[in-house]
Design goal:
β6 and β7 form a beta hairpin. The longest helix is centred in the N-terminal third of the chain and has 25 residues. The two termini are 31 Å apart. The protein is α/β, with parallel strands linked by helices. It has ten helices and twelve strands. It is globular. A five-stranded mixed β-sheet has the order 3-2-8-5-9. A three-stranded parallel β-sheet has the order 10-11-12, covered by helices on one side. Strands 1-4 form a two-stranded parallel sheet.
Length: 388
């Protein structure tokens, strides 16, 4: 998966960058109007996507706050919300395209070695581990995320399995997932905050497994050719939720411009329009938009860290700006009665090693450092059972 500074450049080398259904107009206009970028060169500019999205977010929050105080910022808010939302689709469609190939052998090897007593905690949105775990036959989207989706898409929406027990590890995705689906965002002008257009509670979400035939999507824009856990720019529409009703004396309207250069689709567009359920890499992450969903996931992650005998950190360097992830470990370790074994696998492990030794109090005797990358040739048995 590309790093933050590589995402724009990665996009322009993918075939989806040539697809007119992949909407990037708001992003390009923002780069032009705010950063003075050449519209023909936006995706070769080397922008850090985290800084870019955070800048959009900050301007949006400032405009909302000023509008709340009586300054008319409605047009600006609508424009910025469009950029913010388009960036979320942009993230997800890149992830979906990159992971749309053979299942990662490295992930299969580690997934096959895990047991029902193990927990995988990730801050990533990709489904590399999801796909690997699914091949074991002991894990499924129905019950493997620690949260039960309302429906699962398997060439159509189906009820998740009612299996009372799981026979595989738990996969906790603390920033959402590219195959998690929610309804589109809207602006609640009375409350001066974002909201979802679904009638169900904000923590209700849907999961995507596979689509081998066309499904209803925004403007019927189904894109074929994707492996399991991946889809084109638009996820399938929700069919069992009519969406929020209009307030008394109001009417809800939906409109879509039709441009002569935009090809029309013959696929169905029925249902409630959806978007990927991910927390973008911005400074003020909007976990609360989804009710109790993420607070539940983070609580389960903390409980897992409290109970774990052995904690393995693969390729996560604990960036200094990500205070919430550091707090997760601090809170968990404060609740522990024993010191766990900690293994760090990273080509540049200095930051993580310093954190666990100096901040979290893990002694050198309980700390195993592997200054290397993780790949399909990694020693999985040695990783799971270190000598220290």
């Amino acid at each position: 998966m590309p790093l933050a500074k590589d995402l724009f450049d990665t996009f322009q080398h993918l075939d989806i960058s040539e697809n007119p259904w992949v909407l990037i107009g708001n992003i390009i206009n923002y780069a032009r109007d705010t950063m003075g970028a050449n519209v023909m060169n936006v995706f070769a500019s080397g922008y850090d996507i985290e800084e870019f999205h955070s800048d959009v977010e900050q301007k949006l929050l400032t405009a909302i706050e000023e509008h709340k105080r009586g300054v008319d910022r409605q047009v600006e808010i609508i424009h910025l919300l469009g950029v913010y939302t388009q960036l979320i689709y942009f993230f997800a469609c890149i992830v979906n395209r990159i992971q749309n190939g053979p299942i990662s052998p490295a992930h299969i090897r580690i997934g096959s070695a895990l047991t029902p007593d193990d927990t995988v905690i990730t801050f990533n949105w990709d489904c590399l581990m999801d796909r690997a775990l699914a091949t074991t036959g002991t894990w499924a989207t129905d019950y493997g995320y620690g949260l039960k989706p309302k429906m699962v898409f398997r060439d159509g929406w189906v009820q998740p399995s009612s299996a009372a027990t799981r026979s595989g590890p738990l996969l906790l995705k603390l920033h959402g997932s590219s195959n998690w689906i929610t309804s589109c965002m809207m602006m609640d002008w009375d409350k001066h905050q974002f909201d979802l257009i679904q009638n169900a509670g904000p923590d209700v979400f849907y999961a995507f497994d596979f689509a081998r035939q066309p499904y209803p999507a925004y403007a019927g824009r189904f894109m074929p050719g994707y492996e399991e856990f991946s889809y084109g720019y638009y996820p399938p529409n929700i069919l069992d939720d009519p969406g929020k009703s209009a307030r008394p004396d109001h009417v809800l309207m939906q409109m879509r411009p039709k441009w002569p250069w935009m090809p029309e689709s013959k696929t169905s567009d029925k249902g409630l329009i959806t978007m990927p359920l991910i927390i973008p890499p911005v400074k003020q992450k909007s976990y609360e938009l989804f009710g109790e969903l993420f607070s539940t996931l983070w609580r389960k992650a903390e409980d897992s860290l409290v109970a774990a005998d052995h904690i393995i950190i693969i390729g996560y360097s604990f960036p200094r700006t990500d205070h919430k992830s550091v707090s997760l470990f601090k809170n968990a370790f404060c609740r522990r009665r024993t010191m766990p074994k900690v293994t760090i696998v990273d080509p540049y492990p200095q930051r993580a090693a310093e954190l666990f030794h100096s901040t979290l109090g893990i002694t050198e005797a309980r700390l195993n450092i592997r200054a290397e990358g993780f790949s399909e040739t990694s020693d999985i048995d040695g990783l799971l059972r270190p000598t220290k």
